[in-house]
Specification:
The complex is a heterodimer of chains A (209) and B (190).
Chain A: H1 6-17, H2 22-34, H3 36-53, H4 64-71, H5 76-87, H6 89-111, E1 116-117, E2 124-126, E3 129-132, E4 137-139, E5 142-145, E6 148-151, E7 154-156, E8 159-162, E9 166-168, E10 173-174, E11 178-181, H7 184-208
Parallel strand pairs in A: 3-6, 4-7, 5-8, 6-9, 7-10, 8-11
Antiparallel strand pairs in A: 1-5, 2-3
Helix pairs in contact in A: 1-2, 1-3, 2-3, 6-7
Chain B: H1 2-13, H2 18-39, H3 42-58, H4 69-88, H5 100-114, H6 118-123, H7 126-135, H8 139-150, H9 155-162, H10 166-186
């Protein structure tokens, strides 16, 4: 059998696949007539096909469909949510933004316990108290965090005090608004208003463009 | 049948889960049979065939309705079966990439450890014997042989299911037949 050309076995498979060409078939047939080994090989291969095709059909177990239906994922609403998120990317982004902003605000409120203030000229710092000395005029807004403010002179702008209090002398004069923020919710509200103002001013700028 | 199936698929896509039951009814025998022939165990076959339908349901939006649904389903099922077979024997990759008959020799050496003695073989019913011989084929050849002779699919369809070039599918069927021939020629009576 070793003497037989390799293509003969290849032709056998072509024949079994039903894809043999006329010439190949003729060559195969004439070879098989003269070669007992290849005849046996061909027979065995045909037997293999018959053997495998003899397999009985297997039916699915009863209740198969019900079992599948019971296994299907139930969280339709979950799928609905993710589809909704995919279809509304801007709203999703906005929601995420709000989430992160609010968490950032709360952590900031706790973390920002140290004394800070807006740098302005003519302002004197005494310990954790900002002093606007008598006769001095501070131009611009003043924000003080975790500290007190003592105003003896004039403030030409808004004053915001976070976690602190203000002491005003009789000579004191504030031209703008005064705000004192001491509670978490005040703090939040302040930030929301601030963000709101920024958004409004942003849109106003956009419009003027 | 394809028109009916596509109609049901559209209903499923719209959220009508019950429409999927009809799809399962139509294809359950085919999928169960492939899984059974691949895995050789009714219990596992049921498990994997069910899993295949669940995956089909979850991923139904990825099915291209211009194509044949059964091809897509068969692909999911055969992939799951092959995964399962590989997980069962993580230690050897003998059927990985071995050329020609060399692969057959290596495989049959391993299979020898699982081979039943002749007197045991004689006791097997024909159907069990068929399943036994199929299960001894390397999974590459097994999937091709099962799809060709048990599901009676065309070579073209098999190539789409297994995502292999037509030539590769033919080679696998040829080698599968040769492997079976060697398995059977060792045992008389067949």
């Amino acid at each position: 059998m070793n003497a037989c050309p390799e293509r003969i076995v290849h032709f056998m498979h072509e024949y079994l696949d039903g894809e043999i060409s006329r010439e190949h078939e003729l060559e195969l047939k004439s070879h098989l007539q003269s070669c007992v080994d290849c005849q046996a090989h061909m027979h065995e291969l045909s037997d293999v096909v018959a053997f495998v095709k003899g397999a009985a059909r297997v039916e699915a177990p009863t209740n198969f469909t019900n079992a599948v239906m019971a296994k299907l994922p139930k969280e339709k609403s979950h799928a609905g949510v993710s589809r909704w998120l995919r279809q509304h990317p801007i709203l999703t982004a906005a929601a995420l933004f709000c989430l992160f902003m609010s968490s950032a605000l709360f952590t900031n409120f706790n973390e920002e316990q140290q004394f800070s203030f807006t740098k302005q000229e003519n302002v004197v710092v005494e310990g954790e108290t900002i002093v606007i000395p008598k006769g001095q005029v501070v131009k611009g807004d003043l924000v003080v965090k975790n500290g007190d403010v003592q105003i003896d002179g004039e403030l030409d702008g808004n004053l915001t005090i976070i976690n602190g209090s203000k002491y005003m002398a009789s000579t004191a004069n504030i031209t703008g608004k005064t705000e004192e923020i001491n509670e978490v919710f005040d703090w939040l509200w302040f930030h929301i208003k601030d963000a709101g103002k920024q958004v409004v001013s942003f849109f106003e700028k956009e419009e003027t463009k | 049948m394809d028109a009916l199936v596509n109609k049901r698929i559209k209903q499923v896509l719209k959220g009508d889960k019950d429409a999927f039951a009809e799809i399962v009814d139509l294809y359950q025998s085919k999928l169960f049979q492939v899984c059974y022939r691949m895995l050789g165990n009714r219990h596992e076959a049921e498990d994997i065939a069910q899993e295949a339908f669940v995956r089909a349901y979850i991923n139904i939006h990825t099915f291209d309705q211009k194509r044949k649904f059964s091809t897509w389903l068969y692909r999911i099922a055969t992939n799951l079966c092959i995964d399962r077979i590989r997980k069962k024997k993580p230690d050897y990759h003998l059927d990985a990439e071995v050329a020609g008959t060399e692969g057959l020799n290596m495989y049959s050496q391993i299979a020898a450890s699982e081979e039943l003695p002749e007197e045991e073989l004689m006791k097997l019913e024909l159907q069990d014997r068929i399943q036994y011989e199929i299960s001894r084929l390397p999974d590459k050849y097994r999937s091709a042989i099962v799809l060709k002779y048990m599901e009676e699919l065309s070579l073209q369809e098999i190539s789409e299911i297994l995502e292999l070039p037509l030539g590769t599918v033919k080679t696998r069927i040829h080698r599968g037949r040769e492997a079976l021939r060697k398995q059977l020629s060792k045992q008389p009576n067949f």
